[in-house]
Amino acid sequence: MKKILVVDDNPDIGRLLEVALGGTYEVFVATDGVSGQQAVSDHGPDAVLLDHMLPGRMQGLEVLQTIKTDPLQKHILVAMITARGQAVDQRLGFAIGADAYFVKPFSPKTVLTWLQERLA
């Protein structure tokens, strides 16, 4: 079974994605950038659903950059799921290496469809 890591400090978003994806994927949740980065190393997910604004010392774009510059992790799909929906935010996310960018509020079904297409 493919593994999905959700990194979001909002527990409702984490639960929503766990429910939406749980029947299809093994889902892990982290609530900040540091634990998210550790979960990437610990679980080796096939995809990461990553919030831009996270509490603590490591923001979402830093997690994204760490994943995409690591030769052992750069193959991992990363979708930003964030309230930061301005064009400049999206361009920056894609420039760092995001594979998709979903703006909150988002459709869990759209995220599931994207994952199914990309992880087929």
Report the principal-axis shape. Answer: globular
Radius of gyration: 13 Å
Q: Count every helix, treating DSSP H or I runs of 4 or more residues as helices.
A: 5
Average pLDDT score: 96
Residues in β-strands, percent:
15-25%
Element order: H for helix, E for strand? EHEHEHEHEH
Low-confidence stretches: none
Distance between the termini: 12 Å
User: How many runs of DSSP E, i.e. beta strands?
Assistant: 5
* Cross-sheet strand order for the largest sheet: 2-1-3-4-5
Helical proportion, percent range? 40-55%
Q: What is the CATH C level class, in words?
A: Alpha Beta
Overall SS class: alpha/beta
In short:
This protein has 120 residues and is an alpha/beta fold. It has five helices and five strands, in the order E-H-E-H-E-H-E-H-E-H.
Layout of strands and helices, then pairs:
Blueprint: E1 3-7, H1 11-22, E2 26-30, H2 33-43, E3 47-50, H3 60-69, E4 77-82, H4 87-96, E5 100-103, H5 108-118
Parallel strand pairs: 1-2, 1-3, 3-4, 4-5
Helix pairs in contact: 2-3
Which properties best describe this structure?
120 residues; alpha/beta; Rossmann fold; five-stranded parallel sheet
Describe this structure as you would to a colleague.
- This protein has 120 residues and is α/β, with parallel strands linked by helices.
- It has a single domain (3-118), classed as Rossmann fold (3-Layer(aba) Sandwich), CATH 3.40.50.
- It is 45% helix and 20% strand.
- It has five helices and five strands, in the order βαβαβαβαβα.
- It has helices at residues 11-22, 33-43, 60-69, 87-96, 108-118; strands spanning 3-7, 26-30, 47-50, 77-82, 100-103.
- Strands 2-1-3-4-5 form a five-stranded parallel β-sheet, sandwiched between helices.
- Helix 1 (11-22) links the parallel strand 1 (3-7) and strand 2 (26-30).
- Helix 2 packs parallel to helix 3.
- The longest helix has 12 residues, at 11-22.
- The radius of gyration is 13 Å and the shape is globular.
